[in-house]
Amino acid sequence: MDLHIDAALAQRLIAQQFPHYADLAITAVPQQGWDNRSFRLGSDLTLRLPANPSYAAAVQKESRALAALAPHLPLALPEVVALGTPTAAYPMPWSIRRWIAGEPLDQSPAPDRTALAKSLAAVLNALRAAPPLPEFTAGKHSFFRGCHPSCYGDEVIASLNSLGPAIDAPRCLQIWRAGMSSAWTAAPVWVHGDIAAGNLLLQDGLLTALIDFGTCAIGDPACDLTLAWTYFTAAERAIFRQALGLDPATWARARAWALWKALVTLAGLSSPDQNGTQSRALAALLDETA
Asked: Is residue 229 classed exposed, middle or buried when 0-12, 13-18 and 19+ CB atoms within 10 A define those classes?
């Protein structure tokens, strides 16, 4: 169950563990994800507190991953300034980070979408090229991002059964089975695990930062490509795919990842589809021919 986390709790944690920051104003960040609660700390820092224990292990993990990846990626990453420890009021670790200026992609007005497709592909290519660390091998800690999408096969079938005639189940199964027919056979690579519009920051229409590495891992990069269907048009998706330079089998597994997320969301097994992103992604997947 998610904990009640507000600015008053954040203020108490700061006062107890980092009193030299106690005079800085604390304000909630308007755009909140599901996994963590974030607060501005003065003008240059931010607090990041896991929303429930299932996300707590990512605090230490993300700190190590960010330090390892920052020298290898062509954009800004969060910089961890300090790690907080559990208390009776908040029984989980937490972090203080440098604030990164920018607007999330889903709030950014009219970016150059073709340029974004190319620049995101360049970031993902650099991520795959970064030296891997075996301690981050994909698994439960990454919510199986970086693993084969078949790990969520039971949820796909449950979603199809739940949704029934509301969707084209035969076409969905065709897409899913195509993704099941291959595996990543190259050396495992870094994956971010949650390349979503809310985790891409833009300034002046350009991609400048990537945040939220809580589900990062070493494994199969297919899970990082789902923005192809959740955000890009068909033409932009083709540019993104070409710039990535990945094989057709990896693209088929990426489709399977995107299909899984759309189905579990629409079937009510995941967070709600508040802005219709997953409905549009499913439509895009079903419209594709290859």
From this structure: buried
How many other CB atoms sit within 10 Å of the CB of residue 182? 18
In angstroms, rounded to a whole number, what is the distance separating the alpha carbons of residues 83 and 59?
8
CA distance 227 to 241: 11
Three-state DSSP at 191 gives strand
Q: Which tokens in the block code for residue 248?
A: 């057709």
User: pLDDT of 159-191, one tens digit each?
Assistant: 999 999 999 999 999 999 999 999 999 999 999
Task: Give the 3-state secondary structure percentages of the chain, helix then strand then coil, rounded to 5.
Answer: 50, 15, 35
Q: Which residues 6+ apart lie within 8 Å of 138 measured at CB?
A: 144, 145, 146, 147, 188, 191, 217, 218, 219, 220
Beta-bridge partner residues of 23:
none
Q: Model's pTM, two decimal places? A: 0.94
Q: Which is nearest to 198 in space by CA: 211, 215, 216?
A: 211
DSSP-derived 3-state class of residue 68: helix
Looking at the DSSP bridge assignments, the partners of residue 39 are: 28, 47
Helices and strands (DSSP H and E) totals, the chain: 9, 10
